[in-house]
Design a protein that fits this description.
The protein has 71 residues and is an all-beta fold. Helices cover 0% and strands 62% of the residues. The protein has no helices and six strands.
Length: 71
């Protein structure tokens, strides 16, 4: 599992996307943030071991981070 702490304003729409290293989307979730800070847990059990890119997007903010899944 991947735990993410978000420090975004309440009522912010956020999208979590995970891509494999070939650019294929393997996970996507949209959520409205209701509290500050917000903790989000993403279940990675369906993913194979390897490197992935996690993108977190809002209307005002985008970031991409590399994550490594080990089993």
């Amino acid at each position: 599992k991947l735990n993410i702490e978000l420090k975004l304003n309440p009522n912010t729409n956020v999208e979590f996307s995970i891509f494999d290293m070939n650019g294929r989307a393997v996970f996507d979730k949209k959520k409205k943030i209701n509290e500050y800070p917000q903790n989000e847990e993403i279940d990675l059990t369906e993913l194979n071991s390897g490197e992935y890119l996690l993108r977190i997007s809002t209307n005002q903010y985008n970031t991409t981070r590399k994550i490594i899944v080990q089993k």
